[in-house]
Amino acid sequence: xxxxxxxxxxxxxxxxxxxxxxxxxxxxxxxxxxxxxxxxxxxxxxxxxxxxxxxxxxxxxxxxxxxxxxxxxxxxxxxxxxxxxxxxxxxxxxxxxxxxxxxxxxxxxxx
Amino acid sequence: xxxxxxxxxxxxxxxxxxxxxxxxxxxxxxxxxxxxxxxxxxxxxxxxxxxxxxxxxxxxxxxxxxxxxxxxxxxxxxxxxxxxxxxxxxxxxxxxxxxxxxxxxxxxxxxx
Lengths: 111, 112
Fold this sequence. Notes:
The structure holds 2 protein chains of 2 kinds.
Chain A: E1 5-7, E2 10-13, E3 19-24, E4 31-38, E5 42-50, E6 53-56, E7 65-71, E8 74-79, E9 88-96, E10 99-102, E11 106-110
Parallel strand pairs in A: 2-11
Antiparallel strand pairs in A: 1-3, 3-8, 4-5, 4-9, 5-6, 7-8, 9-10, 9-11
Chain B: E1 4-7, E2 10-14, E3 19-25, E4 32-38, E5 45-51, E6 56-59, E7 62-67, E8 72-77, E9 86-92, E10 101-102, E11 106-111
Parallel strand pairs in B: 2-11
Antiparallel strand pairs in B: 1-3, 3-8, 4-5, 4-9, 6-7, 7-8, 9-10, 9-11
C-alpha cells in the first residue's frame, strides 16, 4: 500500500490566487481528515469526512476554505483567495478503528 | 469539544536517561489515546496507543500510562537515544473513526 498520498508536496503562490491541495486516502479507510500545522498553533483539524460525507467542518477558518470528497479515493482542500497567513503545512490523514495514517503533507507558502 | 494539554513544550535529556511527557484531556467520553512522533520535515507517525480499558502499555523502550479518573496520560521513553529526538504529540479521541484532538507537541532533544 502506498499510504496516504498528497499533492503537491510544495506550493508557492501569490496572495489572491486559488490553491487546491489533493489527497488520496488509503483504500478501505472510511474517514479522512485535513489538518493544518503551524509553529504557533500546532496541528489543527480543519474538516473531516466519514464515508465521503463531511462530519465536522468547525475548524475551517473562513469561507475562503472549502473541502470536498467526491468519492472514497479522493479529496481536495481549496483556498480561494489565498493569503500569506495561510502559509503552513497541510496534512491529510485517513483512518480505521486502529488510528490515523498521515500523508507527507503539502507545504504551502503564500507570498 | 475535547481539549488536550501537553507539557513540557521542550525537553532535553542526556542519552541513556528517561524522558516523560504528560497530557491531560477534558472529554470523559474519550477512550483512545495515540502518541505520534514527528521528525523534522516529516509526517507524524503513530508510535504507540492506549485504549481506556487498559492502564498501561509497553513496547520496547516506550510505555504509556492512562489514568481515566484524573484524565491524565503519559509517554515514557527509557534509555533514550539520539534518534529519539523529534516532536511528540499526544492525542485523544472517542474512537478511531472519529476526530483526534492533538496536544501542542513536545520537542524532545536527546544529547549524545
